[in-house]
Amino acid sequence: MDSIDATVAELSAEPHELLARLREHAPVSWLPSLNGWLVTRHAEAVRVMRNPAVFTVDDPRFSTAQVVGPSMLSLDGADHARHRAPFASAFRPAAVRTRFADFVTAEAERLVTSIKPAGTAELRRGIAGPLAVSVVAKVLGLGDVEISKVLAWYDAIVGAVSGVSEGNGVNPAGIAAFGQLSARVRETIALRNDSVLADAAGLTADEIVSNAAVMMFGGIETTEGMITNAVWHLLECSDGLGQVASDSALLENAVEESLRFEPAAAVVDRYATQDVDLGGASIRRGDLVVVSITGANRDPLVFPDPDVFDVRRPNARQHLAFAHGPHVCVAADLARLETRTAIKTLAANLPDFRLTHAERPTGLVFRKPQALHVEWSIVD
Question: Which domain of life is it from (predicted)?
Answer without folding.
Answer: Bacteria
